[in-house]
Amino acid sequence: MVNTWEPLYSENYMRSKKANKKFDFKVFTETGLITDGTQQNDSDLKNKGGKPTDRDSNVGHTLHVWLNGDYHGNRHGSHDEKNPWDVDITKRLDYSSAIAVLGFSLIVSILRTFDVRVEAARVMVSAPLLALVTTHVLYINFYKLDYGWNMIVCVAMGVAQLFLWARWAAVSRHPSNWKLWVVVIASGLAMLLEIYDFPPYGGYFDAHSIWHLTTVPLTIL
């Protein structure tokens, strides 16, 4: 198994290696080969142009990539790498789209749960959140692509929405309240998969891929 990672994910690399002892982990960055967290010479990087490759026949990799949406730059390295530029742009698009969706859904949550109908009030609610989302997207794209900070912002917005909908479910007598409670509780538990990450045991499913899988039935519900 040959994967490409960044130093940011070296801890998860070690966790993945310990959890999947049957695999021979070799990790490449743009500058060289990493084994056990130590930077070495990149003489093993055979392909031209210094572009890392992924050679993996395990069906678990296929399942992992499919569930993760073929995400280039996954924290545990199970991905099909093309080149460093692809890693960078894909991560930026991933982070930006996540915060955009969460920002929009938070606006909708506030407007719906508090039944905000006056147009001026809707603008007053939406404008600050749109400004926050825009500032955050600009920060991670043009100043610092900070995974930890992005996760904090995303989790804060996600938790805020869960509390808003839980409050609404508690005071409302809507006939579909039970569905909302299921979504709120299950979403909160699913969020733990993103916060308390774990590597793909057996080479099949990691926390991130399971989180993606849980979002399907929750979205339908």
Please render the helix and strand layout as text.
Elements: E1 2-4, H1 10-19, E2 26-28, E3 33-35, E4 38-40, H2 59-67, H3 84-113, H4 119-142, H5 147-171, H6 177-195, H7 207-220
Parallel strand pairs: 1-2
Antiparallel strand pairs: 2-3, 3-4
Helix pairs in contact: 2-7, 3-4, 3-5, 5-6, 6-7
Protein architecture, described:
By secondary structure, this protein is mainly alpha-helical. 59% of the residues lie in helices and 5% in strands. It contains seven helices and four strands. The protein has helices at 10-19, 59-67, 84-113, 119-142, 147-171, 177-195, 207-220; strands at residues 2-4, 26-28, 33-35, 38-40. The protein has a four-stranded mixed β-sheet, with no helix packed on it. Strand 3 and strand 4 (38-40) form a beta hairpin.
In short:
One of its GO terms (biological process) is GPI anchor biosynthetic process. The chain is 59% helix and 5% strand. It has 221 residues and is mostly helical.
As a percent range, the share of strand residues is 5-15%
The 3D shape can be described as flat
- Record field, number of beta strands: 4
The total of helices stands at 7
Radius of gyration: 20 Å
Approximately how much helix is present in the residues? 55-70%
- Which runs of at least 5 residues are low in confidence (pLDDT < 50)? 1-9, 29-60, 71-82
Strand order of the largest sheet: 1-2-3-4
Q: In sequence order, what are the helices and strands, one letter per element?
A: EHEEEHHHHHH
User: End-to-end span in angstroms?
Assistant: 38 Å
Main structural class:
mainly alpha
Task: Write down the overall mean pLDDT.
Answer: 75
Please summarize the sheet with the most strands: 4 strands, mixed
GO molecular function, one term: hydrolase activity, acting on ester bonds
Main location: Golgi
Family: Belongs to the PGAP3 family.
Subcellular location: Golgi apparatus membrane
